[in-house]
Design brief:
heterotrimer, A mainly alpha (88), B mainly beta (386), C alpha+beta (298), A: mainly alpha, C: 298 residues, alpha+beta, T-fold, 7-stranded antiparallel beta sheet, 13 strands
């Protein structure tokens, strides 16, 4: 990678990484300041609802992600990229 | 299914009321545990792209891709701390796609479509195992994907653990994929054989419970690919040999007790070393009924074109591509998911419609003539048993 | 709570010396619950609430009582008002401890004014019964709650195999020491040999019924469960047994079943989604448990 990346690209990657780190820090700080109420272990009924999970169904989410990844230029989200395919 | 786990609204709301009393709080509920049942499922999806506008086509058919996707899986607990899963997926794809973009007699860009319809079948098999302990779980996943012109072997490892009295969950994952491209000489002329590419990816994120009805998460994903990254079925496509990508994502879920519904929000910012930037926003409203849940959802997407994208490729540049998927555009999806609980069985029906348009995006750029609209319908049946 | 109790536990390994103190703790737990919720004890919480009926004085509630009343409220909603903890005063018009004494039907009319959960006032200040003479009775719910509390206490002390029975309701922890599930017999309404057995492992079985106390009046046999709307005993199934994760949930389902006609009870029970057994007034057995127990369904 280091050999083939142009100087412009490197600068842009650097700028983007710093920008990302900035956004991430901002979110982290904001999240820590957010009102976090104590929720007892036995009061997690609502949080346990299937519609409150990050993905209602892992396989369904994978399918959706697969469709969008092959039709758009973006990848990634809330997990590491999975297997490859010749999706065109 | 555990016969004592009633799904009736009566028993569920009674359980919720009793949850405030110590007598009904079991320590076991705090520990991470494998699923209590075995699940077998099948999901079938049909994906269909709209015909391309005849006015955008210089030569070739106007019909585009149709894909049938079938997923089969079985996931079962093993002992007290493990689970295993086997997934098989088959994609059957037919249709034509843009071969390259040229200019017509008026100097307007137009698409030359691939000659005739392709027929491609891909099979992917994956095995996964997961280990659970009191404060977290970790999983390993290996999968192999095979089709006439493409083969991929991937491995992924993930782990998550709870802290702060189980109100915070940290997640990390890494994955690796080795792909081999061997384009088939057929309907579309190709000029490469036996290429390979490698992809490594890592993710780190944290999720925090905010209240008894709200949870938020944020995460960062980094992916690096190198090797042959161009599209062999596009005549004018020469992409860099490396590709670095980051995605920053955040999500929020809130349960509205009075409405008996959940609000779902997700946002992702993406940027890569090819000059592409994008924003994705997803909103869903999951409405609970007696035995079913209906979730209408909306997605907005906007991307900026890659540095080397041109509507009509400039072959003098070191890198070039006319692939509409690297152009600037915006897209919207409207869809709904309906899940029906039938005791041990669950039925899910989902449908969505996707429209893309160069004018809907947040970024400027020349519009690609081959932007796609599609619809997707899915039906799934799952069976859970002890 | 006015009923017999049986406790069987296998002491956690290496801690058999702790069995006696553990049983003491259990007894003291049950006594505490009785002191708090019994309507027969003058200084119990329930009696305090009942004495203050019509006075305008609210009674403050702690988390436990508040939750149990919330459960009573949910049961009232889900049963269409048939489960009503204020309906106990109607028994004054009926005599269930003797036969041949006619019911004082004229008394029913005046007692009806004192019945109705919808009339009960519940605010942040607590609970208040607006009509003098109104009474609430948590007896049924507390009995099942007590069994669940007992299970929780035993579990906290490391017991992984045990069974507790309180006046017909059974809650189990784990399996028998041999590894086989606990076998619980379902008694026949008319007495005699048990009808059959059900296997329980970390589950609870609650039985509701109209068989324990009956009354003969004008040639018909009535159980002791009263319909709050009419004031008359319910013409419901003879007995219903439900298995659930805990006694209170199972008991809620079985009690509401017994307040309806056998036909309506069957629909209620199959909707509730828990294993059940119903014995109707003709001694006909139905429900998924009946098949499991090998009972003939005719």
């Amino acid at each position: 990678m280091l050999g083939t990346t142009s100087r412009d690209e490197k600068t842009r990657i650097m700028k983007r990484t710093l920008c990302t780190a900035g956004i991430l820090s901002a979110i982290t700080v904001q999240t820590s300041c957010m009102q976090i109420e104590t929720v007892e272990a036995w009061d997690r009924g609502y949080l346990a609802e299937d519609t409150m999970q990050w993905e209602t169904d892992a396989r369904s989410a994978r399918l959706k992600g697969h469709v969008y990844t092959s039709k758009e230029a973006s990848t990634g989200g809330a997990g590491a990229a999975g297997g490859g395919c010749g999706c065109n | 299914m555990n016969p004592l786990h009633s799904n009736s609204a009566f028993v569920r709301s009674l359980t919720r009321t009793l949850a405030t009393l110590p007598a009904y709080q079991t320590g076991a509920a705090l520990a991470d545990a494998p699923p209590a049942f075995t699940e077998v499922g099948v999901r079938y999806s049909h994906y269909s792209e709209d015909d391309i506008d005849a006015s955008s086509v210089i030569f070739g058919a106007t019909s585009r891709y149709d894909i049938d996707i079938t997923q089969l899986w079985i996931e079962a607990p093993v002992g007290a701390s493990w689970s295993v899963a086997l997934d098989v997926q088959n994609d059957y794809q037919t249709g034509a796609s843009p071969w390259f973009v040229g200019t017509d007699q008026n100097g307007q860009p137009g698409v030359i479509m691939s000659g005739a319809s392709i027929q491609d079948n891909r099979v992917e098999v994956g095995v996964a195992t997961r280990y659970f302990w009191a404060d977290g779980n970790a999983g390993l996943n290996v999968s192999h994907s095979d089709e006439d012109d493409y083969e991929a072997l991937s491995m992924a490892f993930d782990a998550s653990w709870n802290t702060a009295g189980n109100t915070r969950t940290w997640t990390t994952s890494v994955s690796n994929s080795r792909d081999k491209v061997n384009p088939t000489q057929g309907v579309i002329p190709v000029f490469v054989t036996n290429e390979a590419l490698d992809t490594q990816s890592g993710y780190f994120g944290v999720s925090q419970i905010l209240s008894r009805t709200a949870i938020v998460r944020v995460g960062l994903n980094y992916t690096y690919s190198d090797g042959y990254l161009s599209d062999p079925y596009k005549l004018n496509d020469q992409r860099p040999q490396s590709h670095e990508r980051i995605a920053l994502s955040t999500g929020y879920r809130h349960f509205l007790i009075d409405a008996n519904a959940s609000v779902q929000f997700d946002y992702r910012y993406y940027a890569d070393s090819w000059g592409v930037d994008s924003h994705t926003v997803e909103l869903g409203w999951a409405q609970h009924f007696e035995r079913t849940t209906l979730t209408p959802y909306f997605r907005y997407y906007s991307q900026r074109e890659a540095d080397f994208f041109q509507v009509v490729a400039d072959l003098n540049e070191p890198h070039f591509a006319d692939d509409y998927r690297l152009s600037s555009y915006g897209a919207m999806t409207v869809g709904a998911r309906w899940a029906i609980n039938l005791g041990d069985w669950t039925l899910e029906i989902e449908g969505e419609r996707y429209w893309s348009d160069a004018n809907w995006g947040l970024y400027d750029g020349d519009p690609a003539p081959a932007l796609v609209d599609f619809w997707r319908g899915t039906i799934a049946i799952m069976w859970r048993f002890d | 709570m006015g009923g017999p109790a049986t406790v069987v536990i296998t002491p956690p390994s290496g801690r058999s010396a702790q069995t006696a103190p553990l049983l003491d703790k259990l007894q003291s737990l049950l006594r505490t619950l009785e002191r708090r919720y019994s309507r027969y004890l003058a200084d119990s919480l329930i009696s305090t609430i009942n004495t203050r009926a019509g006075s305008g004085d609210f009674t403050r509630l702690d988390l436990e009582s508040e939750t149990l009343l919330e459960v009573a409220d949910q049961l009232w909603h889900s049963s269409g008002g048939l489960f009503d903890i204020t309906s106990g005063v109607l028994r004054k018009a009926w005599r269930f401890d003797a036969t041949h004494i006619p019911v004082d039907v004229s008394q029913l009319a005046s007692l009806q004014d004192k019945v109705g959960w919808e009339k009960v006032e519940r605010t942040a200040q607590g609970i208040h019964l607006p009509v003098k003479g109104m009474e609430i009775d948590l007896g049924g719910l507390v009995k099942e709650y007590a069994a669940d509390c007992a299970v929780s206490l035993l579990r906290d002390h490391g017991v992984t195999s045990g069974l507790i029975e309180l006046a017909g309701d059974v809650a189990t922890i784990g399996c028998q020491p041999s590894g086989a599930p606990w076998q619980v017999g379902i008694r026949a309404p008319q007495g005699g040999d048990p009808l059959g057995g059900i296997a329980l492992s970390s589950a609870a079985a609650a039985t509701s019924g109209n068989y324990a106390r009956t009354l003969r009046f004008k040639g018909r046999t009535y159980g002791h469960l009263l319909n709050p709307h009419t004031g008359w005993p319910v013409e419901g199934p003879t007995s219903v047994t439900v298995i659930g994760e805990n006694c209170l949930s199972a008991g809620a389902v079985s009690t509401i079943a017994c307040l309806q006609s056998p036909q309506a009870a069957m629909t209620w029970l199959s909707d509730a989604g828990l294993p059940w057994l119903m014995i109707d007034r003709e001694a006909v057995c139905s429900g998924p448990l009946a098949a499991e127990m090998g009972l003939s369904l005719t």
